Write the structure tokens for this entry.
Amino acid sequence: MTMVQAIGAALHDAMAADDRVVVFGEDVGRQGGVFRVTDGLQGTYGEQRCFDTPLAESGIVGAAIGMALRGFRPVPEIQFDGFTYPAFDQVATHLAKYRSRTRGLVRMPVTIRVPSFGAIGSPEHHSESTETYWAHTAGLKVVVPSTPADAYSLLRDSIECDDPVMFLEPKRRYWAKEDVDRAARREPIGTAVVRRPGDTVTVVTYGGLVGVALEAATLAAEEHGWDVEVVDLRSLVPLDIDTVAASVARTGRCVVLHEGPRTLGMGAEIAARLQEEVFWDLEAPILRATGFDTPYPPTRLEGDWLPGVDRLLDTVERSLSYDHA
Amino acid sequence: MADLIIDEVALEPIQLIAPDGHPTPHHGLDPTSVVDRLPAMYRAMVATRGVDEEMVNLQRQGQLALYPPCAGQEAAQVGCATALRDTDWLFPQYRELGAFLVRGIDPGGVGLSWRGTWNGGLGFVERCVAPICIAIGTNTLHAVGAAMASTWLGDGGVTVAFIGDGGTSEGDVHEALNLAAVQQAPCIVFVQNNGWAISTPTHDQYRAPSLAHRAIGYGMPGVRVDGNDVAACHMVVAEAAERARRGDGPTLVEAVTYRMGPHTTSDDPTRYRSEGEVATWRALDPITRCEAFLRHVGAWDDTLAEEAASHAADLRRSLRDAVYDAPDGPATEVFEHVFAEPTPELLRQRDELAAELEREG
Ligand SMILES: Cc1ncc(C[n+]2csc(CCOP(=O)(O)OP(=O)(O)O)c2C)c(N)n1
């Protein structure tokens, strides 16, 4: 099934398994969401468990907090990444802090689904990388699946998790297909996975760019004989630095790949952590292939702006150019 | 000026021209008093309809990434925009093609934004129109701030925020209305209630008797107007602007109209609304209503139709010319407009991208 179908299936199964799960947001009911992710939920579970809200993101998240306080497990959708900004107040001021504020008495099992990131040719505010805002806000988990099967499993985990989760769905992978075994759960939130083993250099990435990294790795092997290892983080908080560090300790080289602007992006954090963990194993500085420190560009320029196979391979080559032998 | 805007908010929209073109005088006010201005409004509506159609065609041909059609809402937009001075600032959402054309914005400037070579709209701020605003509701506060600035500057300026029925649910809009009332800002919040916010009907959006009724709670006048009646929209906004210029503060105007097409070119309205509903509104077309009225009062002239059609055709052609094969521009340009002076880091990143693009040829 596609990632859209896998996420829809996860919502269906979560709602069937637990009647405290409620799904709501703009256009999620009658229309089944602008990407059809929530298609059929209202028909199956009724209008109390899947409903359209007025156009108000702060309201959507704020109301989810109240529902969670009374024992429900809300799974709100914010229609696009750039429209999480009006909701930022409720997420940062309250959602992320309720547990610590109440010394653990109140749980916030809220999973905010956000169709995220770029590369689908959309207008302004439809392609933003918001992950570091959330990762920088203590008390939130941040999950970014890259495949349909992971999306299914990680979303089920997120909904069952007693803490708030920002579930960022890479739109450019929405139509990617994969067999999904709904009976089997995969690794829980907080575990990275090696998508392609290799021993020349480690590429660390997540979400929509995992596909780009794998494509680049295939090309690199064919054209240069470089054996690129690709690590998919899957969740940014918690960050499975052990898996990354083990990989980099073996390869001695690391390139972090992400769409968001470079400054203070995930690459900055990963580079700092690796430097603390595996300094003596490094053969080269940890490098980054990223978006730039500009607003996300207009549609026709996003192909040049976004990090792709070429930018990644250039960066890999730069990493390999450090040679101490 | 007759009192169209009164302290009590009436549910029945103000209408000066009935759907069949007969005048329906309201509070003693007769649409014949604007009859000399109607041909220009008719022409602007025909231009809007034509350019809108061309935008949809261009999107279907893959020339535009996306487009939100405005067919059906011409009277609301044109009636409103023609009631203002060229120096009054407009704060649009994204569906206000009629207002853009009234301001003389080149259709190509609008088209290129939807093509995705610019964000926001080209040639807008030069004509006192804020850029297209995709983040719904956020523009209303800008209109209030700009209106306050007009008061401080003493320039007699009025600002108009365009918002949809859905958009009125955003928190920012409540803050804007309240601030405007408290400051008595010379601002008009012009709601185009077109029945739907993507797939969400007004019944799921608000439960007030009307959106104009909200004005009561903020302490400002609210008025409902037939959004398919260009004369009524024009006169209501003219009166609201006059009140604002006099120092009598903001007005909330709700234009009751209908979105004839899909929300955007990527939307499929058959999933949520009925053909019957669309047909009902098609019969209320604002352009044919304007024509019928002009005929009724003997002010119609066949050359007007021809002249309006040829003007629309010119604009369509200029849109096509602007859009077809328009260059995307150099990707490195995105670095030029982040700050007044690029930081050293931005310059480094610009050079990096330039080198990368050169390597890739
Ligand atoms: C803050 C924000 N949230 C969500 C969206 C996605 N969105 C785009 S248009 C739309 C519906 C708007 O309806 P309405 O305000 O009635 O205006 P209309 O499009 O009907 O003119 C939504 C939900 C957005 N653009 N901005």
User: Anything to note?
Assistant: Chain A is about 35% helix and 20% strand. Chain A has two domains: 3-173, 193-321. The longest strand of chain A covers residues 254-261. The pocket of thiamine diphosphate is lined by residues A 26, 55, 57, 79, 83, 86; B 95, 134-136, 164-167, 194, 196-198, 259, 263 (CB under 6 Å).
